[in-house]
């Protein structure tokens, strides 16, 4: 702390913050009243480390290099995200990368779902919608990370196509309804993909934008967190996830110009992928086993609805 901020910064307290399944997050409080956040990218503590080791470059959503890239890119484009104070990738004392990041004194956007003042809700989610529009209308003709400049011969949705096959195979090993309907689900995947028309126009997306990935400060200003997966992609990928995670509050975020066929394809992919994700958390010792089981159960039912009737 003293190396980064100065000799008057002494650590008084360190506490574990909300942590997802990939990186570890701590709040550091100093004796002079200053607070910041410590991010730790320790692959040994990542519940999806097996998958992370084999990801295509355009599927990567983990690592300090992506955090640094996207933090800089979002900031340059006027999208609020906590400031990066210091990033250590030397690995001379520790076997992992870590960063000191701005502490946003506020709450996650999901807490405003139940706020008693509708005017406050309006302000928060309208601002989230404006931030989202600013991101998605930042377009280019090449999909991939912010620093990618080589055009691909394939289309980005084909990455999700292949991923859905892998995740469906995993889920079929552990859920009887998925196993007995695996061929029908696979047929539905191919059917949805066949309706997608070629397009090479991509917006900048967060990649996993739930209401738990938006921090809101005391001025009701939204800040994006967990930004490692941000990239240029089909914005329908983002909107299909937003619909699922924001529920009724998606009305503040909706975009009437979306491609319906892409939207359906990505919805189906999310359900299959999240079913598998919930199962992997369950099998790999994620602390909140009830959450993991509920995720797998709910998402598998949503996937199966695509082949009903």
Automatic annotation (TrEMBL):
SUPFAM superfamilies: Protein kinase-like (PK-like)
Aminoglycoside phosphotransferase domain: residues covered: 72-244
Family matches, as Gene3D superfamilies: 3.90.1200.10
InterPro entries: Aminoglycoside_PTrfase (IPR002575), Kinase-like_dom_sf (IPR011009)
Presence of keyword Cell membrane: no
Keywords: Transferase
Claim: Flavoprotein is one of the keywords in the record: no
GO terms, molecular function: transferase activity
Protein name: Aminoglycoside phosphotransferase
Organism: Paenibacillus odorifer
């Amino acid at each position: 702390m003293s190396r980064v901020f100065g000799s008057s910064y002494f650590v008084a307290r360190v506490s574990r913050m909300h942590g997802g399944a990939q990186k570890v997050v701590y709040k550091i409080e100093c004796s002079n009243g200053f607070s910041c956040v410590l991010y730790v990218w320790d692959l040994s503590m990542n519940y999806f480390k097996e998958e992370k080791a084999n990801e295509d470059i355009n599927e990567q959503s983990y690592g300090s290099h992506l955090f640094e890239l996207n933090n800089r890119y979002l900031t340059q484009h006027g999208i609020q995200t906590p400031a990066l104070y210091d990033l250590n990738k030397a690995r001379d004392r520790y076997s992992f990368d870590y960063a000191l990041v701005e502490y946003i004194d506020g709450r996650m956007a999901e807490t405003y779902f139940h706020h008693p003042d509708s005017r406050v809700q309006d302000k928060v989610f309208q601002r989230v919608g404006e931030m989202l529009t600013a991101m998605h209308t930042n377009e280019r003709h090449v999909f991939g990370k912010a620093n990618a400049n080589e055009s691909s011969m394939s289309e980005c949705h084909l990455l999700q196509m292949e991923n859905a096959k892998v995740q469906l195979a995993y889920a079929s090993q552990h859920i009887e309804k998925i196993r007995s309907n695996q061929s029908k689900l696979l047929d539905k995947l191919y059917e949805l993909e066949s309706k997608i028309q070629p397009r090479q126009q991509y917006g900048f997306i967060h990649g996993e934008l739930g209401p738990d990935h938006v921090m809101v400060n005391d001025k009701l200003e939204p800040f994006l967190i967990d930004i490692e997966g941000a990239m240029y992609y089909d914005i329908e990928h983002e909107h299909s996830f937003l619909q699922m995670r924001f529920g009724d509050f998606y009305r503040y975020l909706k975009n009437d110009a979306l491609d319906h066929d892409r939207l359906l394809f990505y919805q189906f992919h999310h359900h299959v992928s999240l079913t598998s994700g919930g199962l992997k958390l369950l099998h790999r010792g994620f602390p909140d086993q009830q959450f993991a089981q509920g995720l797998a159960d709910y998402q598998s039912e949503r996937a199966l609805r695509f082949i009903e009737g």
